[in-house]
C-alpha cells in the first residue's frame, strides 16, 4: 500500500509539474505519452530516495524504461479487457484523499500543495488509480499463482545463500489489552462541558471556532475539528455509528466513546466514506480506574503462571482488543525492526514463554490502556537455514521467479505493442 501511495503522489505531482514547465514528449506507448517533465520528476524522486545522482543519464534511462513498462502493462490490460470495479477505484481514491487530508490538515492546504482544486485532484487520482489497478490485476492473474518447487527453493538457497543476509531477530507475541473505565462521577464534568458546547452550537455558535478553542483532540483542533475523510471501519464503533447516521451538515448529540465525549458534524458523505469534524472533551484521568485495570491484568498473569488458566482463553474472554481477542490475543510474528519501540522495550528482555507485568499502552494522544504481553517465541538473528527458515526463503524465491517471468513477458510485449522513445 505504501508503494501505491507514493506512486499516486508522484503521478499527481508530475502532472502538476507538466503544466508549469516547457514540456516535450520523450516516449509513446500505445495511446499513452510520456512527458519530459514526468521523466525528470520521477528521476529526481528516485535519486533522492536512493541517494543517487539525478544527472546520471543512465539513471534517467532506467526510470524511463520503468515508466514504459508500466504503460505497456496498462495497454495489455486493456487488450485483455481487464476490469476493475468503481468500488475498488473509489476505495483507493478515498484512501488517498484521507492520507492527503491527514498530511496537510485541510482541503484548502491540499489544494494549495498540489496547485489544483480538489475535484481536479480526484479526477487525476481516479484515472491513474484505475490504470494502476488494471495493471496490478493483470500481473496478479498471470503470475500470482507462480510458485517455486521445493527443488527450486533449495537450488535458489544454494545459489544465493551468501547474499541473502541474516534472518533478523523475530518475536511471536500475544497480548491482553484493557482500557480503564472512569467512574460516572469522574465522567460527569466532561459530559456537562460537552452538553454546554452542544447548546452553544444549537444557539448558532460556529463549530470550527468552538472546536479550535475547546476540543482536546490535538490532531484536529487546530483545523476546526476537521478529521478529513474516513471510510467505514476505521473509526471507533460509537463515533462511526453516530457519524454515518447524520445527513450532510447535521450535528450529532453528545456521543461517548473510549476517547471521551464527542460532538460530530458531518461535512460530506460519499458511499462508505465520510468527511466529518468533531469536538472532543476527554474524560479526566481516574487513578482508581487505572489501578483496578492493572490489578485485574496482574491477576490474569498470575493465574496463567500458576497453571489456573490458559493465556489464549483469558484473551478471548477479557481482552478489549477485539481483532486479536478472537485469535487468543495473537498479534503475530514480527522482525525486530517491525515492532513499535514501546513494545520492543517490553519483549526484548523477555525469554520465550514469559508474560510481562501490566504495561501502559498509548493508542494516541487521547486514549490509552494497559496490557500484559506474552512472548510466545523469540528467534535470535541468524544465518538463513533451509530447514528453519524455509517459508521465508521460499517467499523470496517465489518473488524472484515471478519477477524474472514478468521481465521476460514485458520484453515480449515490446514486440507486439507500439512504443517509441523520442529522446
Write the layout of secondary structure elements.
Layout: H1 2-20, E1 25-29, E2 32-35, H2 36-50, H3 57-79, H4 86-104, H5 107-114, H6 118-143, H7 150-160, E3 170-178, H8 184-202, H9 207-214, E4 226-231, H10 237-244, E5 251-257, E6 260-270, E7 273-281, H11 287-305, H12 311-318, H13 322-325, E8 330-335, H14 341-347, E9 359-364, E10 367-379, H15 390-413, E11 419-421
Helix pairs in contact: 1-2, 1-6, 2-3, 3-6, 4-5, 4-6, 7-15
Note down, in words, how this protein is organized.
The protein is of the alpha+beta class and 423 residues long. It has 3 domains: 2-143, Orthogonal Bundle (Triger factor/SurA peptide-binding fold), CATH 1.10.4030; 170-181 and 286-379, Chitinase A, domain 3; 184-281, Chitinase A, domain 3 (Roll), CATH 3.10.50. The protein is 52% helix and 19% strand. The chain has 15 helices and 11 strands. It has a 4-stranded antiparallel β-sheet. Strands 4-7-6-5 form a 4-stranded antiparallel β-sheet, with helices on both faces. Strands 2-1-11 form a 3-stranded antiparallel β-sheet. α1 (2-20) packs across α2 (36-50) and α3 crosses α6. The protein is flat, with a radius of gyration of 27 Å.
Radius of gyration based on Cα positions: 27 Å
Largest sheet: 4 strands, antiparallel
Could you tell me how far the N terminus lies from the C terminus, measured between alpha carbons in angstroms? 32 Å
Tell me the number of helical segments per DSSP (H or I, 4 or more residues long).
Answer: 15
| Range of helix content | 40-55%
The average pLDDT score comes to: 88
CATH topology of the largest domain: Triger factor/SurA peptide-binding fold
Spatial arrangement of strands, main beta sheet: 8-3-10-9
Low-pLDDT stretches are 1-10
Number of domains: 3
Under the CATH scheme, the architecture of the largest domain is Orthogonal Bundle
Overall outline: flat
Got a strand count?
A: 11
- The CATH superfamily of the largest domain appears as Porin chaperone SurA, peptide-binding domain
- Helix and strand run: HEEHHHHHHEHHEHEEEHHHEHEEHE
Structural class: alpha+beta
Amino acid at each position: 500500500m505504501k508503494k501505491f501511495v507514493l506512486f499516486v503522489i508522484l503521478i499527481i505531482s508530475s502532472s502538476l509539474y507538466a503544466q508549469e514547465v516547457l514540456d516535450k514528449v520523450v516516449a509513446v506507448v500505445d495511446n499513452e505519452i510520456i512527458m519530459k517533465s514526468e521523466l525528470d520528476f520521477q528521476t529526481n524522486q528516485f535519486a533522492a530516495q536512493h541517494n543517487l545522482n539525478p544527472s546520471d543519464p543512465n539513471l534517467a534511462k532506467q526510470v524511463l524504461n520503468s515508466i514504459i513498462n508500466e504503460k505497456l502493462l496498462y495497454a495489455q490490460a486493456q487488450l485483455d479487457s481487464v476490469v476493475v470495479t468503481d468500488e475498488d477505484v473509489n476505495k483507493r481514491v478515498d484512501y488517498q484523499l484521507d492520507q492527503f487530508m491527514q498530511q496537510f490538515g485541510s482541503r484548502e492546504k491540499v489544494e494549495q500543495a498540489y496547485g489544483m482544486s480538489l475535484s481536479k485532484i480526484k479526477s487525476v487520482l481516479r484515472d491513474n488509480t484505475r490504470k494502476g489497478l488494471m495493471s496490478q490485476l493483470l500481473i496478479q492473474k498471470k503470475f500470482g499463482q507462480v510458485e517455486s518447487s521445493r527443488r527450486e527453493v533449495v537450488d535458489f538457497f544454494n545459489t544465493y545463500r551468501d547474499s541473502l543476509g541474516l534472518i533478523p531477530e523475530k518475536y511471536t507475541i500475544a497480548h491482553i489489552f484493557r482500557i480503564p473505565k472512569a467512574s460516572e462521577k469522574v465522567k460527569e464534568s466532561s459530559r456537562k462541558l460537552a452538553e454546554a458546547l452542544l447548546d452553544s452550537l444549537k444557539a448558532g455558535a460556529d463549530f470550527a471556532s468552538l472546536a479550535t478553542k475547546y476540543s482536546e483532540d490535538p490532531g484536529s483542533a487546530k483545523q476546526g475539528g476537521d478529521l478529513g475523510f474516513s471510510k467505514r471501519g476505521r473509526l471507533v464503533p460509537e463515533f462511526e455509528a453516530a457519524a454515518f447516521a447524520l445527513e450532510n451538515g447535521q450535528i450529532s448529540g453528545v456521543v461517548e466513546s473510549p476517547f471521551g465525549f464527542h460532538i460530530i458534524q458531518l461535512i460530506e458523505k460519499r458511499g462508505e466514506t465520510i468527511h466529518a469534524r468533531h469536538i472532543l472533551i476527554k474524560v479526566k484521568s481516574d487513578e482508581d480506574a487505572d489501578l483496578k485495570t492493572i490489578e485485574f491484568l496482574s491477576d490474569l498473569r498470575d493465574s496463567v503462571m500458576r497453571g489456573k488458566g490458559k493465556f489464549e482463553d483469558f484473551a478471548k474472554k477479557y481482552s478489549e482488543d477485539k481483532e486479536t481477542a478472537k485469535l487468543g490475543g495473537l498479534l503475530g510474528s514480527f522482525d525486530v525492526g517491525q515492532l513499535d519501540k514501546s513494545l520492543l522495550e517490553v519483549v526484548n528482555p523477555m525469554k520465550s514463554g514469559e508474560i510481562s507485568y501490566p504495561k501502559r499502552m498509548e493508542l494516541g494522544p487521547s486514549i490509552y490502556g494497559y496490557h500484559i504481553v506474552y512472548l510466545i517465541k523469540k528467534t535470535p538473528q541468524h544465518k538463513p537455514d533451509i530447514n528453519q527458515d524455509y517459508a521465508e526463503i521460499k517467499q523470496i524465491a517465489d518473488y524472484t521467479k515471478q519477477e524474472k517471468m514478468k521481465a521476460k513477458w514485458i520484453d515480449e510485449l515490446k514486440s507486439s505493442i507500439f512504443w517509441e522513445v523520442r529522446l
